[in-house]
Amino acid sequence: MADELESAELHTYRERARAWLAANIPPRARLDDGSYEEPDLMAESDPAYIAVARERQAAVFDAGFAGIPFPVEYGGQGLSYDHERVFLEEQAAYDTRSQVFMVSINILGATVVEFGTEEQKKRHVPKILRGEEIWLQFLSEPSGGSDLAGMLTRATRDGDTYVINGQKTWSTGAQRSDFAICPTRTRWDVPKHKGISVFILDLRSPGVDLRPIKQINGGAEFCEEFLTDVVVPASNMLGDENEGWRVARGLLNIEHAWQGRNSGVAEAVGVDDLIALATERGLIGDVGVQRKIVDLHVASHVQSLAAQRITNGMTSGALHHGYGPIVKVGGALNRQRRAELGKSLAGSVAAGWRPGDEDRWSRDLLSSRSATLAGGSNEVLRNNVSEQVLGLPREASPDRELPFNQVPHN
Ligand SMILES: Cc1cc2nc3c(=O)[nH]c(=O)nc-3n(C[C@H](O)[C@H](O)[C@H](O)COP(=O)(O)OP(=O)(O)OC[C@H]3O[C@@H](n4cnc5c(N)ncnc54)[C@H](O)[C@@H]3O)c2cc1C
User: Fold this and answer.
1) Does the beta carbon of 355 sit less than 6 angstroms from any atom of ligand 1?
2) Residue 269 pLDDT
3) What is the pTM of this model?
4) What band does 1 get if pLDDT is binned at 50, 70 and 90?
5) All domains of the chain in start order, with CATH
6) Which helix (DSSP H) or strand (DSSP E) does residue 250 occupy?
């Protein structure tokens, strides 16, 4: 982005990152229209793909570009979010396979830094940053992902361990992961937010049964998990017993802040590929098409700048975490608008789709539907903005103060 406006120090950092990436990581493949080819959706469940991803992440770590804003004592670089943005911008042109570690590092590693014990941080965070451990989140359950505090998965104390039983679902990347952050219910006789404890769960533990879920876009990045008598050491608890809502809420705040930082970079992709598509289809002279492309370009720029501004505000403490969802809501809607425009320009070319086809526009359309659900649905995030930013009355929640064992389930 705006190279000419950044400080000399950041500019030097950018040049160092650019030179290292060019020398050590293969460039991302480009399509005819100049845009980057997206990773094959099935590849991310392929052990060979993940092995190379881990090698590249280790190289990024060893070169001092992993965990840029993480504390130095846990393997990070102790640098600013501006340094992180610069590296993300430069990295976009290279096939680091960083998407494999995105949640693991930026959401879950950061959650361990914020809520973990010293031992948990020292043991796990450097390995997370180096890609030796991949983490995922076990938040959603079949009974519903939006009502996170209403979880039914149970953990029961047994000496210096806990025994976990229940079911999680929609867990991105479970097949390739090593550990999960897993909220559970440890008390049933108190209101739902007051009986939650969060665990670090080793996915190789006996009793963890992972089953991939095939998706409409051809991928199978999700799993559902059946947890049967899974034994977890009490020392794996993240945060305090029955105080896990603080950790779960904190994780979501970290997720929204990361989405803001990442969205500022992702939105800067521009509309060159849509212009190329409209030109190829003979539609570029159509004033209606031009207007849609311009509208999207404006919306993307506004989103990118808003993301940077809100993220900077949250980082400096000028804005509280309630602002994070604004970035997610706007980014998700733009992603869907972009996919819909691409599909309408592609016309009959994108009418059919089979797994393995190169039809990026159909695939984009199908994948984009998840944008307003992943990481919290737009409806629920609008509720957050309504309550936390605008101070509007809280939505009715009849089960909020009831002991959880008196709340009807299913
Ligand atoms: C790409 C992708 C990746 C994901 N990765 C993970 C992951 O790694 N780990 C994980 O745990 N989960 C993951 N999820 C699940 C995601 O968090 C849930 O899909 C999301 O929280 C919504 O939950 P749900 O699907 O159970 O829908 P429900 O909670 O059942 O909601 C159904 C509908 O009702 C609406 N709704 C619910 N409550 C309200 C309300 N109070 N007010 C207004 N509308 C409401 C919702 O907006 C939604 O449209 C992922 C989802 C996607 C799409």
Assistant:
1) no
2) 63
3) 0.92
4) very low
5) 3-132 (1.10.540.10), 136-244 (2.40.110.10), 247-389 (1.20.140.10)
6) helix 244-266
